Each structure stands twice: as structure tokens, then as C-alpha cells.
């Protein structure tokens, strides 16, 4: 079988070359995934994209995706930072549980609600300090170190609940519930809260040298040491950041149900967060932190969930679809697999 | 020779100590009745944990354990509805567990992806599949369930060794034999101790890695079969969170999470410690699930810190 | 056993190398880092495939494509890192992969017998049930030899076996080597310790830049000839000197080390670095070049002596303190200790300067780009732009990026460890010229290098090291290749 030679006009870049350049930009993949999901949604039910204004606020499936993605995205941002230092934090769900319990406790104690926000962040700080201590000072493997808080954290939350009497106590807080479920102009308030968290984190990482130091410690810890970077402090700060973002997500989630339910709040959010980071291009082996793409990753995961819900498929399909998506992403990221796929395809062409 | 058994001894001591504390706190605690119940109640998770020990010994991790337990139960329940004998459906699930585990191992080794993430996807896949089949618990009505439950070996002192516990003990012995008396077992320890060296020493890497996860999958499936028979139902939420309990049992049993050091034998006692704590709390009545979690975390912390300094004190030297 | 002879020419990192191994003979293989020793051994032991040439065993050509095949042919290897598993017992290590088994079940009693027999062959009697890692490295190495030694071993390769051994342990090892020799085994002994070579070897082959530059029986290879084969051209040829006028003797002492040392790493030494002066660190591999550089920089903590930078004593030794005090460092091993592969060229270049400024005062993007572009031009770093991930650059260019990093941190004292390794020969001259230019600006430079020619060309003073000791200094007009070599060899010129 003869092959026609491909001639390229040197003046015009070939389509293949342009595609190559586009593919080289990492942001393509999660964006593509998101677009694909939305496209399939549109095919299944065109009303997916309808946006209505009800009671002065935007509603619609697309809005829903962004709305529900906020807690996961917050946790994922902190997780991306920790993963960048070659670590991981499995205890975020527990941090959220403890946060919820503390919020309820202080509200019942009569604290001004603004102060309670600081209590919540304080919980995140403490959990981050604990994890950081285990990983940076005691040099325990991150998976195991954060496992400790993961196993015991929800119990601590339950204990706090018990202290002032009652199982699954609830609370009312205009401020907190407003932050979580309210709206300003047409936009759900929590999106603005998320934006604030993102901007603060972005400024912390990219407007100071912290981001660079985090990535260097994760990329080559020995080289970082020789460059004069204090790796221990940097790793500490990573876990503190993760604790703080988890606590922020905890405020949103707790105020959503205005109940403290340490056993089921934020269940599996650590897994979703890790997946969001991986889909967003982060590598579990440490290195670059892609804040923006992690948000995309969280959106992809949430879009999957919402799409399945609105398409009429039972929500149970959610997990399977997520698993398949993650596997596909991982396989594509693996050089060995790509090589195998290419060679199989090449063989079949002959 | 003695250094090797130190962590195992520590675990057994902790177990006996807890048992003794229970005996001090409550009447009739130190009895084979209680022991038999602990063994039977926790048989399924201990079986799964035994399989996980191999994975952890090789330096890896398997998060899909709990979901496998749930999946196995759900499939068996649904097959029971259409008339399958539990032994047949159970046997098929064992093969499935083996194959699923092998697939995970292959992806981990060939694509060079971290075990954490691959088995995480496995967790999602299996758990999701559970839900896709049915949402509520489905009972298993076959007569075999009763027959199985009635099999028991009486113990001195009035207690009984129930069928699930017997299966667990047999599985435990088999695992010990595999770990310490087969080439495969030696290879697992080698890979966990120093992966590069193991490769240079001629250990067949791919075969062993696939085998490790296949074995883990097999044991998880076995745990699932036992759980299904024990609760006589297939419950899609079964096994949730069990992967953590399993890993914690392995760690408490003296196996280092970094791999290469530890004993399968210890996992039995590690799992029993968890079971003991739950029973102690049950006996108390006024304490609740919160304490299990907190105590679990504290124990885990102590053991991990202990392990950290044990490794340092082992003074394992490597060339410059 | 009659003579075992092998001949194999030619491979990429090896350029048509010939090697003949005779049974019952200890054949030492020597050369600096990057000379090709490990590559040659990897081809012999099946870890690498050769590109051209052939291997002959007893006159018959053989194919060695895997470690298993090498072992089957009777070639045993003991690697420098003692590639055994420290967490397993000695018995298990000795029998891994070949455990005696009945119906798939290992018989540990038989395994223990086998282990004891193997160890007895080397006259070792230890508790074989203890974990391997609980023994000293010396014993671990002997165990590794015991494992590598089969009934039918014809060739035994020992890769840097004495690197972590003290004098007594080395003597024990040599006893065993002599014993093996008497059994007719051909032993390949890779090392960089000249004294040891003359104690144990019967024949020496020297590799340099992938080529075999000399091979002779020990009697025909005196130390002088050996050293010059390893690091320089033939004696008698004078090297080029780029040095301008000598710096004034009242130039400020920017760094002073007094009695600085660390047990087992480097004997206490004194060193003075003056502004506008280049001090070269010369010596063979293993003589302590990197150790001196790291001790002076604070990357290695000394347990003896004092360090003064800019007249002020250094309290506490760490890279960050040194960088703040104005000392810059460019490491030898760029992959393990230097580059941040995923980060861009720009980020790699400014990292040390940024760490000096602290995490709050971020260098603006334009400042970073300016610095990066400057360096790319000055050092002729081959990269399309400053945003390319450093891991994608060639080795030589990565080295240049590291050099740029140490320059950009604005040091008064600059320590360079093998700055020209992996850089193409043409660029060497550029770097050497750059070093002299920096001196003209008042910098004090300490350059550790295995390239004697370059040190001779660029140094105002040369500190000579041998076996972790500083044995002397040569200054000014006395700096010639011959003089350095003579000092290392301990002979008169």
C-alpha cells in the first residue's frame, strides 16, 4: 500500500502542528473534559443550560454545578498545595467535622457570629499544625500521618457535640447561612466567598515566593536545601494552608445544613479533592501546583455528579463514572500506557 | 532472631493488656465466649486486612478493600435471588477478587502509577457498582446460610469458635505459610525492603506485583463472602471505611507502612485489638462510637511514632 | 583453571574499549567520574546492551543481555551500593530467588545450611538470622560477595568495594580477594584509591572520557604514570595559563577555614580565600574535593574547626546562612542536588537569590526575566526561552543553569564543584574565561575539578588533596600540571 507523502507548506503551520501546540498546554485536558460533559448534558436535555432568575438569584443546572463544587474546590486548593510538596492530607474531612462541631458549640455559647468564623479558621490552623508537625518535624510519611487525624477527627467532633449535650445539634446563624446559601445581587454568596479564598491563596503563593519554594521542596528537596530554603518550615506551611482551606469548606458545609453532623459531613471529600488535583494536572510525586486547573478539576467532578442527577440516571452511577474518568486520565498521563496504545494502533493500521 | 519478633510481641501484649483491662472493668469479660464473639464479629475485616498485609509489606496500599466487601455481598445476594448456591456465587466472587486485584496490580506496575490512586479508582468503581445493582440491603435466603452459621467448634469455658472465625483462622494460617515459606513471600519482603535491590537480585517484578494485589483482592473478596454469610444479606454500604480499619489493623499488627518489615501473624492481633475496643465500649453502654474513633487514632499515633523510632533504632545501615 | 580471557571493544559512552580479564588475576579498572567505568561494567554484567564490539568467554563469543544471563555465564557482581535488602535476614538475602523448596514450600533449614556454606567459603562466621542492615557495611559487602559467588563463578566484579571501609576492613577484604584469586577467578576491581591498587592489583586499566588510555601489568605502571593517565596528558607538556597579574597580597580575606573537618569525611584543613583570587581544589576522585567544597559552604556540618566569612565568624552551618553571608555554591550532581526539573529556567536561576531575600519579597516577574535573560546570554545557555522546564535541557545546559543560579545570588565568595562536567569542550573555555572575569570583579573563587588542565589554566593557587587530606598548596608560577601530579603522587618533580 503506497503512502502519499505529506507536504507541508512552510508558510502555513499544519493542523497537526497547531494541535500539538494546543495539546501541549495542560489546561486543555480538563477544559475538554468539562466541555465534553456539558455537551453530553446538552444532548440529553437542552434545558440543562437554562438559567432562570428566582427571588433575585440565578438558578439552573449549570449554576448548580458551580454552587455545589465550592466546598470540594476549596479543599482541593489546599490539597493541591500539599500534594505539590510530595505530601497528601487525608484528614480534611475530619477537619471539616471538627469545624462544624466547634461552630455549633460556640453559637450555642453565645459568641458573636463574626468571631465564630475565626474559631472555625482556628480549627483549621490547629489541624494543619498537627499534621505539619507529624510530617515535617517527626518525618512521618504523609499518608500515615494524616491518617491519624482522619481516623480520630470525627470522634473528636462527636465528643465536642456531646460536651454541651445533644446529638447532631443544629444552629441558626444569619451570617453563616447567608455566606453559604445566600446571594448578593444575582450571584450565590458562596461563589464570592470561594473567590475570596482563591484570591488570598493565589496572592500567598504567587505574589510571594512561597509558591516557588513549595514547588521546589516538592520537586527536589535536596536541591531546595542547598539553595538555602528551609524545607521543614515550607512543608509546615503547606499543611497549615490545607487545614485552613478545609476549615473554610467546613463553614460552607456546616452552614448549609446548619447542623453539626461529624459522622457524615464532608464524607469522601478528601477523595474528591485528590481527584480534582490529579485531573487538574497535579502529580502525586510533587512539583508544580496548578491552582486554577485544580478548580477546573473540581468542576469536572461536580459536573459529572450534577449531570448524572439531572439526566435521570440514578445517582449511584456517579461513583462508577468518576472512577472511569479518573482511570482514563491516569492512563493517558502514563507514558508507558501511551506508548502501548500508540504501538497497538500502529499495528492495526498496517 | 529476637529483634524480628519485637513488634509482634508488642501487639500481643497490648491485646492481652486490653483484654485484662476489660476483665477488671466488667464481670464475665475474660471468657472464651467474649473471645469467640470478637473473632466471629471481626472475621471479615481481619481476613481482608490479612490480604492487605501483603500489599503493605511490598510498600504499596490498597484502598479498594471495603468496596470489594460490599460488592461481593451485593452480587451474592442478587445471585441468591435467582437461585444460586452461596458457595457457587462465593467461589465466583473469589475468582473475581483475584482478577480485579491482578488488574490493579498490572496498572500500578506497568503504567507506573501510585497504588494509592489506582486503588482509589478501584474503590469508586466497586462501590459505584454496588449502588448500581441495588440501593437497599437484599437478604440472602438460601439454607446454606443457616448451615454455615451453625457450624462451630466449642471452646473450653463455654465459648464457641464460629464458622466465620474458623475460616478466618484457616486463611490466617495459609497467609502465614505463603508469607514465610514460599518464594513469592520472600519476594514480597524483598520488594518492600528495597525495590531496586530486589530487581537487581533477580526478583520477577511484574509477576510479583500483580500477584501481590491479586492476593489482596482475593482476601478482600473472601472477607466479603464471610460478611455476606454472617449478616445473611448483601448491603451496598457494607465495608465503608473498612479499608482504613484494615490498614490500621495491619499497622497495629507491627507491619511498617513503608514496607519490608512486619508479619502477617500480627494483623490478626491488630484486628482483634480493634474488635476488643469496640466490645469494651459495647459493654460499657454509655460510651459511643466517638470513643472508638478517638482511641483508634491515639493507638495509631502511638504505634506510628513507635515504629518511627524503632526503624531508627534498628540502625539499618546501607552503604554510603 | 586455565586463563579466562575476554575482549570487548566499542560502545557509546565507551569508545571501542578493549578489556582482557585473565583467570587468577586482580585487574583494577580506574578512571575519574564519567570516564566510563560503570558503563563498561554494566555491559559486562548484562545491565546494559553494547552497541558494537563483542564479548568472548574462553575464546567463544557470548551474548550478555540480562543480569540473569551474566550470572549463568559465571559472572558475579557486587555493586557499590551493596544491592541487598537491609530489612531481611542474612539467610534470606543469600538465598533470595534460589531458596531450596519442596513442593513450593521453602525449607529454611536447608536454606540456612546453604547460607552457612557460602559464608564459610569466605571464612565468615556470623549470626545469619539477624537483619542484614544490622551489620556494618563491610560485612554487608562480604555477604554480597558471598551471594555473588557461585560454584561456577569465573569472573567477579567488585565495584568500589572499599569506598565505605576503614583500613582494617579493607585488609580483611583483600585477604578474601587473594583467596579467590588463588582459586583461579578473574577479579575486576574498580576503585579510585591509588594506594589500594598497588596493594592488591596485578594489572591496571585506565579509562578516560570513554576510552581506554592505558593498560599494563602493575610493574609497568608506576603511580606517576597512572595519575597522569587519569587526569592529564603525558608529563612534560605544559598547560596554558590564563591568569593575569597576581592579585595584590593585601586583598581582603573573604573566607577563612581553620581546622575545618568532619570525621570520616575530611581531615581538618586550613583554607584562605582572597578577593580577586581563584583557588583550585585538585586531587583524585575520593580525595575530598566535594567534601571540602560542602564543608566550606555549610552543606555538610563540620565537627571540628571554625569558619569565617567576611571577617565574621559563622555561627551555625547551613546553606541558607552561607547564602545570606554571600557565599554561592554550584553542586556537582546536578540531578540529585541541583535542578528543579519541572520548574522553568528562569525559576531555577533566581531560586538562590530568592531564598536569600526571603519568602515575602518576591522578585518581580520583570526582574526575574531580566536576570534570566542576562544569564542565558552570558553563559550561552541553549534554550528557546526562559520558560522551558529545566528537565528538558541537555545535561550541559542544566549545569550552566546551576552556575547561573549561584552567580545571580550575588556572592562575594563562589564555590564551584565540577563546573565544567558534562559541558561541551568548546564551552569549557568560555566558563574558564568567565571565572577569571569574575575574579577581576573582586570575587573569591574556590573551584573543585577533576580537569587538571583547567585548574592549572585558571588558578592563582592550587590546594592539593589526597585521601581526604589536604597535603599542600602550590602558588603562582609553580602551578603546572606536572607539579600537581607529583604532589599527589608524593614524588619529587
Entry summary:
The complex is a heterotrimer of chains A (350), B (320) and C (493). With 350 residues, chain A is mainly α.
Please explain how this structure is put together:
The complex is a heterotrimer of chains A (350), B (320) and C (493). Chain A is mainly alpha-helical and 350 residues long. Chain A has two domains: 58-315, ABC transporter involved in vitamin B12 uptake, BtuC (Orthogonal Bundle); 316-350, no CATH class. Chain A is built from 15 helices and four strands. In chain A, β1 (52-54) and β2 (57-59) form a beta hairpin. In chain A, α3 packs antiparallel against α11 and α5 (113-137) runs antiparallel to α11. Chain B is 74% helix and 3% strand. Chain B has helices at 6-25, 32-57, 65-81, 86-110, 115-133, 143-150, 163-181, 183-193, 195-200, 205-231, 242-252, 264-284, 289-314; strands at 138-139, 152-154, 160-162, 233-234. Chain C has 493 residues and is α/β, with parallel strands linked by helices. Chain C has two domains: 26-221, 3-Layer(aba) Sandwich (Rossmann fold); 253-489, P-loop containing nucleotide triphosphate hydrolases (Rossmann fold, 3-Layer(aba) Sandwich). The longest helix of chain C has 16 residues, at 167-182. The chains are: A mainly alpha (350), B mainly alpha (320), C alpha/beta (493). Chains B and C meet through α7, α8 and α9 of B and α2, β6 and α5 of C.
Amino acid at each position: 500500500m503506497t503512502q502519499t507523502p505529506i507536504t507541508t507548506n512552510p508558510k502555513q503551520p499544519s493542523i497537526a502542528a497547531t494541535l500539538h501546540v494546543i495539546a501541549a498546554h495542560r489546561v486543555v485536558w480538563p477544559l475538554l473534559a468539562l466541555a465534553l460533559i456539558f455537551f453530553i448534558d446538552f444532548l440529553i436535555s437542552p434545558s440543562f443550560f437554562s438559567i432562570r432568575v428566582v427571588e433575585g438569584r440565578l438558578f439552573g443546572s449549570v449554576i448548580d454545578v458551580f454552587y455545589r463544587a465550592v466546598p470540594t474546590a476549596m479543599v482541593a486548593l489546599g490539597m493541591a498545595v500539599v500534594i505539590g510538596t510530595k505530601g497528601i492530607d487525608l484528614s480534611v474531612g475530619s477537619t471539616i467535622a471538627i469545624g462544624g462541631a466547634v461552630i455549633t458549640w460556640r453559637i450555642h455559647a453565645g459568641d458573636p457570629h463574626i468571631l465564630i468564623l475565626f474559631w472555625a479558621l482556628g480549627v483549621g490552623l490547629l489541624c494543619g499544625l498537627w499534621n505539619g508537625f507529624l510530617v515535617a518535624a517527626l518525618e512521618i510519611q504523609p499518608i500515615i500521618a494524616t491518617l491519624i487525624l482522619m481516623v480520630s477527627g470525627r470522634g473528636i467532633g462527636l465528643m465536642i457535640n456531646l460536651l454541651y449535650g445533644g446529638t447532631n445539634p443544629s444552629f441558626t446563624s444569619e451570617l453563616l447561612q447567608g455566606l453559604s446559601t445566600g446571594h448578593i445581587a444575582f450571584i450565590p454568596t458562596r461563589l464570592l466567598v470561594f473567590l475570596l479564598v482563591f484570591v488570598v491563596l493565589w496572592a500567598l503563593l504567587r505574589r510571594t515566593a512561597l509558591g516557588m519554594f513549595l514547588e521546589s521542596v516538592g520537586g527536589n528537596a535536596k536541591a531546595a536545601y542547598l539553595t538555602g530554603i528551609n524545607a521543614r518550615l515550607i512543608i509546615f506551611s503547606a499543611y497549615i494552608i490545607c487545614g485552613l482551606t478545609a476549615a473554610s469548606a467546613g463553614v460552607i458545609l456546616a452552614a448549609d445544613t446548619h447542623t453539626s453532623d461529624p459522622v457524615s459531613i464532608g464524607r469522601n471529600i478528601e477523595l474528591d479533592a485528590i481527584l480534582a488535583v490529579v485531573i487538574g494536572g497535579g502529580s502525586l510525586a510533587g512539583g508544580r501546583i496548578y491552582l486554577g486547573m485544580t478548580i477546573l478539576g473540581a468542576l469536572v467532578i461536580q459536573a459529572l455528579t450534577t449531570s448524572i442527577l439531572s439526566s435521570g440516571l440514578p445517582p449511584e452511577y456517579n461513583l462508577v463514572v468518576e472512577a472511569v474518568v479518573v482511570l482514563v486520565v491516569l492512563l493517558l498521563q502514563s507514558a508507558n500506557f501511551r506508548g502501548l496504545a500508540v504501538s497497538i494502533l500502529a499495528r492495526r493500521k498496517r | 532472631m529476637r529483634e524480628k519478633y519485637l513488634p509482634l510481641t508488642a501487639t500481643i501484649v497490648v491485646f492481652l493488656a486490653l483484654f485484662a483491662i476489660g476483665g477488671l472493668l466488667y464481670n464475665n469479660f475474660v471468657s472464651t465466649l467474649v473471645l469467640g464473639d470478637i473473632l466471629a464479629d471481626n472475621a471479615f475485616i481481619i481476613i481482608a486486612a490479612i490480604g492487605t498485609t501483603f500489599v503493605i509489606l511490598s510498600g504499596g496500599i490498597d484502598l479498594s478493600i471495603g468496596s470489594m466487601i460490599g460488592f461481593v455481598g451485593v452480587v451474592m445476594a442478587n445471585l441468591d435471588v435467582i437461585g444460586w448456591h452461596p458457595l457457587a456465587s462465593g467461589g465466583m466472587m473469589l475468582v473475581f477478587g483475584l482478577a480485579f486485584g491482578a488488574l490493579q496490580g498490572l496498572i500500578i506496575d506497568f503504567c507506573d502509577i501510585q497504588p494509592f490512586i489506582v486503588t482509589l479508582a478501584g474503590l469508586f468503581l466497586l462501590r459505584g457498582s454496588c449502588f448500581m445493582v441495588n440501593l437497599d440491603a437484599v437478604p440472602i435466603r438460601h439454607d446454606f446460610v443457616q448451615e454455615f452459621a451453625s457450624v462451630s467448634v466449642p471452646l473450653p469455658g463455654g465459648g464457641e469458635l464460629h464458622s466465620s472465625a474458623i475460616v478466618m483462622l484457616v486463611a490466617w494460617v495459609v497467609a502465614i505459610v505463603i508469607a514465610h515459606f514460599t518464594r513469592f513471600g520472600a519476594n514480597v519482603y524483598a520488594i518492600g525492603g528495597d525495590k531496586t535491590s530486589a530487581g537487581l537480585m533477580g526478583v520477577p517484578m511484574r509477576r510479583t506485583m500483580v500477584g501481590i494485589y491479586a492476593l489482596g483482592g482475593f482476601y478482600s473478596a473472601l472477607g466479603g463472602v464471610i460478611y455476606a454469610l454472617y449478616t445473611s444479606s448483601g448491603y451496598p454500604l457494607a465495608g465503608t471505611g473498612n479499608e482504613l480499619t484494615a490498614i490500621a489493623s495491619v499497622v497495629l499488627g507491627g507491619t511498617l507502612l513503608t514496607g519490608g518489615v512486619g508479619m502477617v501473624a500480627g494483623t490478626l492481633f491488630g484486628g482483634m485489638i480493634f474488635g476488643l475496643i469496640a466490645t469494651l465500649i459495647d459493654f460499657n453502654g454509655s460510651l459511643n462510637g466517638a470513643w472508638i474513633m478517638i482511641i483508634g487514632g491515639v493507638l495509631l499515633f502511638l504505634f506510628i511514632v513507635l515504629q518511627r523510632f524503632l526503624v531508627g533504632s534498628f540502625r539499618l545501615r546501607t552503604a554510603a | 583453571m586455565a586463563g579466562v580471557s575476554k575482549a570487548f571493544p566499542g560502545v557509546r559512552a565507551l569508545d571501542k574499549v578493549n578489556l582482557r580479564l585473565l583467570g587468577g588475576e586482580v585487574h583494577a579498572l580506574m578512571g575519574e567520574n564519567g570516564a566510563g567505568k560503570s558503563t563498561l561494567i554494566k555491559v559486562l554484567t548484562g545491565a546494559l546492551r553494547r552497541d558494537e564490539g563483542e564479548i568472548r568467554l574462553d575464546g567463544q563469543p557470548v551474548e550478555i543481555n540480562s543480569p540473569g544471563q551474566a550470572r549463568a555465564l559465571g559472572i558475579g557482581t557486587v555493586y557499590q551500593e551493596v544491592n541487598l535488602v537491609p530489612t531481611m535476614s542474612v539467610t534470606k538475602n543469600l538465598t533470595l530467588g534460589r531458596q531450596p523448596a519442596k513442593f513450593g514450600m521453602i525449607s529454611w533449614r536447608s536454606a540456612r545450611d546453604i547460607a552457612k556454606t557460602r559464608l564459610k567459603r569466605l571464612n565468615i562466621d556470623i549470626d545469619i538470622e539477624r537483619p542484614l542492615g544490622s551489620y556494618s557495611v563491610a560485612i554487608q559487602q562480604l555477604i554480597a560477595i558471598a551471594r555473588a559467588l557461585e560454584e561456577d563463578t569465573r569472573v567477579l566484579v567488585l565495584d568500589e568495594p572499599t569506598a565505605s571501609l576503614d583500613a582494617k576492613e579493607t585488609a580483611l577484604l583483600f585477604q578474601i580477594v587473594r583467596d579467590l584469586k588463588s582459586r583461579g577467578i578473574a577479579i575486576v576491581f574498580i576503585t579510585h584509591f591509588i594506594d589500594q591498587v598497588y596493594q592488591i592489583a596485578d594489572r591496571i586499566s585506565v579509562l578516560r572520557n570513554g576510552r581506554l588510555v592505558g593498560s599494563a601489568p602493575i610493574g609497568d605502571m608506576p603511580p606517576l604514570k597512572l595519575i597522569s593517565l587519569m587526569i592529564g596528558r603525558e608529563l612534560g607538556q605544559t598547560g596554558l595559563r590564563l591568569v593575569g597579574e597576581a592579585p595584590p597580597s593585601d586583598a581582603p580575606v573573604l573566607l577563612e577555614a581553620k581546622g575545618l573537618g568532619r570525621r570520616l569525611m575530611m581531615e581538618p584543613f586550613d583554607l584562605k580565600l582572597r578577593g580577586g583570587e581563584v583557588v583550585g581544589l585538585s586531587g583524585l576522585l575520593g580525595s575530598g574535593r566535594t567534601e571540602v567544597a560542602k564543608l566550606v559552604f555549610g552543606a555538610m556540618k563540620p565537627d571540628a574547626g571554625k569558619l569565617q566569612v567576611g571577617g565574621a565568624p559563622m555561627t551555625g552551618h547551613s546553606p541558607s546562612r552561607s547564602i545570606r553571608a554571600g557565599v554561592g555554591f554550584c553542586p556537582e550532581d546536578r540531578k540529585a542536588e541541583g535542578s528543579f526539573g519541572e520548574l522553568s529556567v528562569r525559576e531555577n536561576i533566581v531560586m538562590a537569590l530568592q531564598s536569600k531575600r526571603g519568602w515575602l519579597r518576591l522578585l518581580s516577574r520583570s526582574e526575574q526575566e531580566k536576570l534570566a535573560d542576562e544569564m542565558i546570554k552570558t553563559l550561552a545557555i541553549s534554550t528557546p526561552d526562559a520558560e522551558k522546564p529545566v528537565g528538558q535541557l541537555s545535561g550541559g545546559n542544566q549545569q550552566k543553569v546551576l552556575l547561573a543560579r549561584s552567580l545571580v545570588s550575588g556572592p562575594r565568595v563562589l564555590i564551584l564543584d565540577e563546573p565544567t562536567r558534562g559541558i561541551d569542550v568548546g564551552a569549557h573555555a568560555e566558563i574558564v574565561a568567565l571565572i577569571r572575569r569574575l575574579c577581576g570583579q573582586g570575587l573569591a573563587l574556590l573551584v573543585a575539578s577533576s580537569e587538571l588542565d583547567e585548574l592549572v589554566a585558571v588558578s592563582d593557587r592550587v590546594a592539593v588533596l589526597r585521601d581526604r587530606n589536604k597535603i599542600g598548596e602550590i602558588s603562582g608560577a609553580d602551578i603546572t600540571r606536572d607539579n600537581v601530579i607529583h604532589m599527589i603522587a608524593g614524588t619529587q618533580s
